């Protein structure tokens, strides 16, 4: 009887404790909710480190629904920037402009986002908004502004003004860029056309297409000779045929010389743009590495 | 074996870095085709953008059918001279297009065209599109 | 009462294990649902979340395999192979290693990096742990050959599984239906247009023959009439061009015909074949 009573007591106690444990302690165990704010932040930060920015972005966005955190907001904006969504990056950096612990960093990154849009004219307009400028990074923004003049076709400021914000070590190179941009070593389309009109192929030789120039000279000369020869031997049809062919080559040669000069100039611009971009990219556009 | 383990561990850590960029834009399931792509053949499509273009593309198709398909692969460029002519006329006018074609023809008979002037395509042809020769510098793509 | 107090830590431990596992399995099921709903990008996010919170790496193999499968479904085979490789490194048994290796082979087959797929098949075959899996290995080797358009070797591989294997018979039929590109070219050297006719393209073959006959006549006639310049021009610019063109044309037509035959079989494999596919 005693044993039976003891067993019942034991079972009852076990049940009560079980219920208590389940309600009180068990809650802490089951509350390992992977979608809680803190877990989203932890997972988002892990993805951010892995450079899985789009997914990190999603986690940060969810976290910020119920929390305020400047660092997370900054990282979220940076995610947008890294994945090439520059407009959204700029908008999100802008949210940290006032009353934030990362005001200046956000303003700098805001300008970086605008710069990355490749709309340099609009970028320069933004540099005139003094209430947007980060006080600790005025020099950086100034340099970015002058770099934009190398990247589009706007009228260049004076050389001294352009060189001033850059360190001494790169000034000579930037001075070279300045001269190349202002006085590009291009070929004249008119000169190419004129040369080809006088001597077929000469315009192409002038633009560096020596093989094409010589070929068109031989083709025009040969067909002209055949036309002359056939007329001389009273082969009227062949004479006119080769006359047409001569006109065909001659006209094509003049047109082609103009096109060749344009392509030459486009190549000069293309190579210059690449050289400039590479130069500044290698130096991160003189911006500090910014990651929180 | 030790080297293999070290490489494996390194791989384990660097894999996420590699994969991250794939996912910077959301993607969906991609349809897979087991089939081998067919050989690139002449495009016989009729251009119906105007009477002149229709006539020109009929002439081109005739040239393809009776001559070009039978005399082998002779043009070193892509698009071929006949397609270049049609594209030139479409982009400009019959007169300007003919001049562009005359220039292309002269460049085609140049024995020494294998310079760095043209991009070489995987099929071994030189890429030389008509839009680079319209005399509109903003259309030039290098 | 003492017994009860002794039982409490045990209870906590068991509860922790069971509930911890539950959360992970719930997360796995959630990711799996997304996977089943073909939302592969989101499924990867959830598998990654699972991996992040799975501190004891219980789901490492399964989740990495699933991520690989997601990338495979998105035709991102490079990423798929990387995740299958990670899964292989975290595999807990020989069966899991074999499974991950097969997935790498299947991805290589779809990526058409046949050399790599075949090399991996050879590695598996030489691995003593997988001696009993030769049928699986031969099956995927056969598929690798199919994707490389090598039906003869595909037939040999499937034949090792079963001489009457459905895919062996298909490979044999496909190989037999193909035309010989070399033969088409050689007969075109002898008679221009014959190669095209051999491949069933009579119109092209006869037109080729016609052009060659006509330009040959012009050339020979010019020389007979002592117009050497005309003869050279006609011979060089017309006859030679169409003669060479007939050979090239025969080759192109033969290759096209073979591609058609191959694609017919590949279409069957993709849409009608009931067995396991890459």
Offer a concise description of the structure:
The complex is a heterotrimer of chains A (292), B (142) and C (278). By secondary structure, chain B is mainly alpha-helical.
What does this structure look like?
Chain A is an all-alpha fold and 292 residues long. Chain A has two domains: 37-152, Tetratricopeptide repeat domain (Serine Threonine Protein Phosphatase 5, Tetratricopeptide repeat); 189-278. Helix content of chain A is 75%, strand content 0%. In chain A, helix 4 packs antiparallel against helix 5 (86-94), helix 6 runs parallel beside helix 8 and helix 11 (189-198) packs antiparallel against helix 14 (236-282). The longest helix of chain A has 47 residues, at 236-282. The model of chain A is unreliable at 23-31 (pLDDT under 50). In chain B, strand 2 and strand 3 form a beta hairpin. Chain B has helices spanning 2-20, 51-68, 81-91, 94-108; strands at 77-78, 119-120, 126-127. In chain B, helix 2 packs antiparallel against helix 3. Chain B has a domain at 73-139. Chain C is built from 13 helices and no strands. Chain C is elongated and about 95 Å long. The longest helix of chain C is centred in the C-terminal third of the chain and has 44 residues, at 228-271. Chain C is mostly helical and 278 residues long. Chain C has helices at 2-36, 40-53, 60-73, 77-89, 94-111, 114-126, 134-147, 151-161, 166-177, 181-190, 194-198, 202-224, 228-271. Chain C folds into three domains: 1-90, Serine Threonine Protein Phosphatase 5, Tetratricopeptide repeat (Alpha Horseshoe); 104-176; 181-269. Chains in contact: A-B, A-C, B-C. Chains B and C meet through helix 1 of B and helix 2, helix 4, helix 12 and helix 13 of C.
């Amino acid at each position: 009887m005693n044993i039976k009573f003891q067993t019942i007591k034991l079972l009852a106690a076990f049940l009560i404790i079980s219920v208590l444990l389940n309600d009180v302690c068990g809650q802490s165990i089951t509350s390992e909710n992977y979608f809680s704010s803190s877990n989203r932040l932890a997972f988002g930060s892990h993805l951010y480190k892995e450079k899985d920015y789009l997914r990190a972005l999603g986690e940060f966005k969810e976290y910020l629904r119920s929390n305020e955190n400047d660092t997370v907001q900054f990282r979220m904006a940076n995610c947008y920037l890294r994945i090439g969504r520059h407009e959204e990056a700029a908008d999100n950096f802008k949210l940290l402009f006032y009353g934030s612990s990362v005001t200046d960093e956000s303003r700098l990154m805001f300008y970086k986002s605008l710069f990355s849009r490749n709309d340099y004219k609009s970028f320069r307009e933004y540099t005139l908004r003094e209430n947007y400028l980060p006080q600790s990074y005025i020099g950086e923004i100034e340099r970015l502004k002058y770099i934009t003049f190398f990247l589009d076709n706007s009228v260049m400021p004076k050389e001294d003004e352009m060189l001033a914000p850059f360190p001494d070590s790169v000034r000579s190179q930037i001075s070279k860029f300045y001269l190349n941009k202002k006085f590009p070593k291009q070929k004249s389309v008119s000169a190419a056309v004129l040369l080809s009109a006088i001597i077929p192929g000469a315009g192409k030789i002038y633009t560096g297409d020596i093989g094409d120039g010589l070929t068109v000279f031989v083709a025009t000369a040969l067909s002209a000779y055949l036309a002359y020869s056939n007329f001389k031997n009273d082969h009227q049809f062949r004479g006119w045929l080769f006359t047409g062919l001569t006109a065909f080559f001659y006209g094509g040669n003049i047109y082609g010389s103009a096109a060749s000069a344009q392509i030459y100039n486009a190549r000069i611009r293309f190579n210059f743009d690449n050289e400039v971009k590479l130069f500044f990219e290698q130096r991160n556009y003189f911006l500090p590495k910014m990651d929180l | 074996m030790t080297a293999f383990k070290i490489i494996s561990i390194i791989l384990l850590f660097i894999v996420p870095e590699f994969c991250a960029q794939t996912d910077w834009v959301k993607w969906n399931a991609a349809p897979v085709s087991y089939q081998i792509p067919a050989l690139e053949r002449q495009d016989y499509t009729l251009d119906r953008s105007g009477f002149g273009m229709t006539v020109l593309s009929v002439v081109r198709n005739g040239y393809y059918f009776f001559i070009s398909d039978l005399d082998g692969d002779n043009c070193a460029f892509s698009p071929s001279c006949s397609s270049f002519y049609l594209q030139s006329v479409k982009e400009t006018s019959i007169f300007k297009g003919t001049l562009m074609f005359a220039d292309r023809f002269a460049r085609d008979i140049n024995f020494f065209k294998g310079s760095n002037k043209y991009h070489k395509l995987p099929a071994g042809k030189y890429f030389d599109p008509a839009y680079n020769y319209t005399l509109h510098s903003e259309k030039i793509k290098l | 009462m003492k017994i009860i107090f002794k039982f409490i830590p045990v209870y906590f431990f068991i509860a922790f294990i069971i509930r911890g596992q539950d959360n992970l399995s719930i997360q796995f099921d959630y990711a799996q649902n997304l996977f089943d709903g073909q939302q592969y990008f989101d499924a990867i996010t959830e598998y990654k979340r699972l991996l992040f919170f799975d501190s004891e790496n219980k789901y490492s193999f399964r989740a990495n395999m699933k991520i690989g499968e997601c990338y495979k479904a998105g035709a991102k085979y490079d990423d798929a192979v990387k995740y299958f490789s990670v899964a292989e490194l975290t595999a807990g048994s020989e069966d899991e290693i074999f499974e991950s290796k097969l997935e790498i082979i299947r991805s290589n087959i779809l990526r058409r990096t046949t050399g790599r797929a075949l090399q991996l098949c050879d590695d598996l075959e030489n691995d003593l742990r997988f001696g009993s899996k030769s049928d699986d290995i031969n099956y995927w080797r056969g598929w690798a050959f199919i994707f490389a358009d090598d039906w003869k070797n595909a037939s040999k591989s499937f034949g090792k599984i079963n001489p009457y294997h459905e895919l062996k018979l298909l490979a044999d039929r496909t190989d037999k239906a193909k035309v010989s590109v070399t033969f088409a070219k050689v007969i075109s050297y002898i008679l221009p247009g014959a190669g095209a006719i051999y491949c069933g393209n009579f119109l092209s073959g006869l037109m080729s023959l016609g052009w060659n006959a006509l330009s040959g006549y012009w050339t020979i006639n010019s020389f007979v009439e002592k117009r050497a310049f005309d003869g050279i021009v006609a011979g060089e610019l017309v006859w030679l061009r169409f003669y060479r063109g007939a050979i090239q044309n025969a080759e192109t037509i033969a290759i096209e015909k073979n591609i058609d035959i191959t694609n017919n079989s590949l279409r069957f494999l993709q849409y009608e074949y009931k067995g396991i596919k890459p």
